[in-house]
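Notebook, p. 212. Picked up where the previous page left off. The plan for this session was modest: take the two constructs that came back from the sequencing core last week, fold each one, and keep the raw output in the notebook itself so nobody has to go hunting through shared drives later. Recording the first one now, exactly as returned: residue sequence, then the structure token string.
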Amino acid sequence: MTTSTRGDVKDLSLAPRGKDRIEWAAKDMPVLRLIRERFAKEQPLKGVRMSGCLHITTETANLAITLKAGGADLVLCASNPLSTQDDVAAALVSEYGIPTYAIKGEDEKTYYSHINSVLDHNPQMTMDDGCDLVSTLHTTRTDLIPGIIGGMEETTTGVIRLHSMEKQGVLRFPVLAVNDSDTKHLFDNRYGTGQSTLDAIIRSTNVLLAGRTIVVFGYGWCGRGVASRAHGHGANVIVCEVDPTRALEAVMDGYRVMPGVEAAALGDIFITVTGDINVIDQAHMEKMKDGALIANSGHFNDEINIPALEKLATGKRRVRDFVDEYTYADGRHVHLLAEGRLVNLSAAEGHPASVMDMSFANQALGSEFMLNHAKELKPQVYTLPQDLDKEIARLKLHAMGIKFDTLTEEQEKYLNSWESGT
């Protein structure tokens, strides 16, 4: 572990490798590059103290470099104890001069000490991935709130927490729900989560997905992505949902839909993507067959009732990296991946850079928007304006060399009129 005034990382000697990987990711993030070039010229964030609680990955590093290019005085910590890429954390500190507090596998005490370290920066703006930074500000560091201009939130889970805070009247500054931008959740959540979740399961287990029964809990955009990619691998997919409309969508998309307790006896691999608690509970785990795999791709490991699993088991051992085998009294074995934490970032590298390009473009433009408009905003949850959302999509298509149609003057007039009829 290397501790300094510039952060707390595992080993600064890892920095050269981290820099190489950050540069590799940058090749597939052209939208963020265009924003960085403009930021470097215009300095829209000059002097703004910013604290970020994010997954410390190669893609996040490119966001951090962009924010710094725009003039931000930025400090980072990890938003999950297992998602940090140690070489990237080292590179951020020694190669890019961005103070970073993140060590893969850090315990809970270290995790929250790192959050408090970035809050010691006395931020004017926050950037969250799961709302732990904002929740800490609203509980133990309330003295800092008067200096906060606003914040950004990246995840579904974090947005759920923020809406709860808003509803209860405790949210004390405006926050942009970056997750709700079309160019974020339609792509990051669906294509990114779909691919990276299965990538992590394959990396950690080397299991063949074809012919297996995969049970997906949740059919939001993340669940849609996981189910689609699992089907593409030849798996038999079952979807478990509490929302009747989403359950109906899953049926019409060709999947079996049933209660989770029924699916528990049929599944080979179970994946949670809901943002809720105890989605896989004791009743489910009691019915699972020998050799079942359990993975979570939601932000918190609350989705799996791990204490109940520990209670059911008579033994536990680590059989592969990121695979814990629990033995039941009757001899069955159930395997928990990545300690129940978000598997795609714990046991693999998270979403591909290409999709994070749009997500982090939202974060970068969101920080600029928040700085320019915070005085007009109330302590509520907001989304990025549609024109900025569509600009990100336009830039992405341009970078991909894809042209698309535009409306003619006649079509514009028609769509904005009511006179024409049958």
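Okay, moving on. Second construct, recorded in the same format:
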Amino acid sequence: MDVQATDFLGAFDNIDESQKLIKETVRKFVTEKFQPNITENFEKGHFPKEYIKEMGNLGLLGCNLTGYGCAGLDEVSYGLIMKELERGDSGLRSFASVQSSLAMYAIHAFGSENQKNEFLPRMAKGEIVGCFGLTEPDFGSNPAGMKTFAKKDGDDWILNGSKTWITNAPIANVAIVWAQTESGIRGFLIEKGTKGFSAPEIHHKLSLRASITGSLYFDNCRIPKSNMLEKTIGLKNALMCLNQARFGIIFGVLGAAEDCLNEALSYTKERIMFQKPLASFQLIQRKLAIMATEIAKGNLLAMQLAKLKHEKSIQPAQISMGKQNNVQIALDCARTTRDILGANGISGEYRCMRHMCNLESVYTYEGTNDIHILVVGQQLTGIPAFE
């Protein structure tokens, strides 16, 4: 029986040659360039910025957008890229997700031609970095309650407020910021160096340590009207961006789950307990089988959602189901692998504890597990249960 432990049902068997090449190229980059230093970078809380331009050269940034220097790849290729990046570390995938599916997508979908031509080609090359400012200190799961406000002043806008837990913020050259206005929530481009704008780093994280996270502060920031995303008309536009990134997470976390299962298989075959391999015990085989089964189901779910997205028929509740389900799968796989490895599982010499810590954040960000379940519940019943 010729099956892959991490794709037991062959969900990816029928990807085409170009998709296979993309997957192999990203896997080689992650294995040869990124992984050798990830333990040290995680321990130091360091994001390796030196790989940003290389990711741009490989066409990984904004890869499923068309025009403006973007690769214009299909949704499966995008998903496979996210999967391979997160196999390396959730922080690496988070950088690419924010750059591509939040910042670049917002400009691509809602920006003017001038904005697209000015920012997207350089962002695709990794020459400039973007971030996405939606979450506020008091408004996470309820972004509609945001207090950040932009007031019209002649031909300019004056922006006041704050955002927090913003990936890429301290290194971003441009921030996509969502703010209340007298005519509803709109999106704005805030460039680094704007007077009254600061983006300090958040320290002492115990998760996503190889990712850079910060806050955004706006103190009477004067923004020219040309920096407003002219096609934004409400919070739904920000949520459209989030759904792009959540789709990438659905694939991405499977890379972390796959890495954990591979580590568990390798460890249990080599580890001798009571004069025989740990893998020979029934309890261990049960845990391995459950992990493989859940990953196989997650793979099928991801590929079906990619099909729906390609057909432009995907619904937000379907993305919520996929994000909630696959993050839970990945987190359970990381926890199970840590359990199987025993005391060794907490060592940085192994990968499962790092994945586990990272996935605790992925479980919460871009919609918490509970919120996504309630989105599915609302779709099923027609009754919102958020309040």
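Notes on construct two before I forget. The first helix runs from residue 17 to 34.
Flagging for discussion at group meeting.
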